[in-house]
């Protein structure tokens, strides 16, 4: 019987490098010439039985380690490359075996990455199945959910929609009783569409904030909602009926890719339109400038909540009649960003909003209070920010209140035009912040949660800095 030749050059090379030996040193230990060892490592000569035994006795290794660890890896790699995504990339088994033999660590990494890909695909498949059962659109482009696409679209888009603003101002001017907006909107719904609004107790509508019954022509709102939120829900219903062409046109400009994304986008535009109805552009801008952007005065004057007035300030971007360029971010206790808006889009690159030193994260410890700060970024850009908590729907006994926090910001040069800097530029506390820990190179930051991507960690056993993530 012919003896099977063993070509194990890559494994011999790994063994030699692991022992920190040169080819000359290993060749001397095995009793062969360095040139012959070089040919073995390049798979131009096979390992003989004598050499295998000599390797085992001299370097105290198991012979099995030199006789075929690539066989199992080749089989697993073969499974990876049968995937339809990769089936045309490898011409045959020979190349797969060569990869497994020559670079087993790379082969293992490839399989690990493939398993992660398959697991993520399975999760998305499960989610698509769940949405399908609920009757929703299930196409997920680029592994993004429709909500992610909508959020990104609104973050990039200036928070100003001219068609809706014009329609809202014209509609507001036509109302008989602007001073009692809620009654005027109820009257319009009843007279124009036969819709009557009713507030229902929690036991009648335990899990909904609003429901429109087409058969009885009634709009039901939950008693959990504050008076301000009930007014907004009412204004949203009016906007969806009165401004449908304008909302459709603005929605088309966002170029969302799926029906589900467009449904979510329509809801966001209806919310925007409700604010435009409750705080007409011209009246609100004039009041904001007169009060020097005092959010509390504005909320009282227009009978809205702090969140509604702050959101409205981010939309003062009409050409020829612009207010200060505000941006806003809302997040929850866990730091999840719920929404980001800006008069010129949210300044993700310049401001970020993920620095743990920002007042929006401290606001939860002081509910209902406005925290005003001067925020200085690593590049020298400065912002004035206002942070405050806002409460969600009324919770029942035993339920935890839904509380989020807002940060409203603008360039500090513009902030000097507001009431919050009346005591002078140096009156506000200065926070040396960054866009996010991974993109910030500030040394000695007590709040750092991650090392910067741009610097290696400072692993010096003799010196320990203030941060758990010291870097060089």
UniProtKB/TrEMBL annotation:
GO molecular function, one term: DNA binding
Domain of life: Bacteria
SUPFAM superfamilies to which the protein is assigned, alphabetical: lambda repressor-like DNA-binding domains
Coiled coil: none
Keyword Transcription regulation among UniProt keywords: yes
HTH cro/C1-type domain mapped to chain residues: 12-66
Pfam family name, one: HTH_3
Swiss-Prot/TrEMBL keywords: DNA-binding, Transcription, Transcription regulation
Protein's name in the database: XRE family transcriptional regulator
Organism: Rhizobium deserti
Lineage of the species this protein comes from: Bacteria, Pseudomonadati, Pseudomonadota, Alphaproteobacteria, Hyphomicrobiales
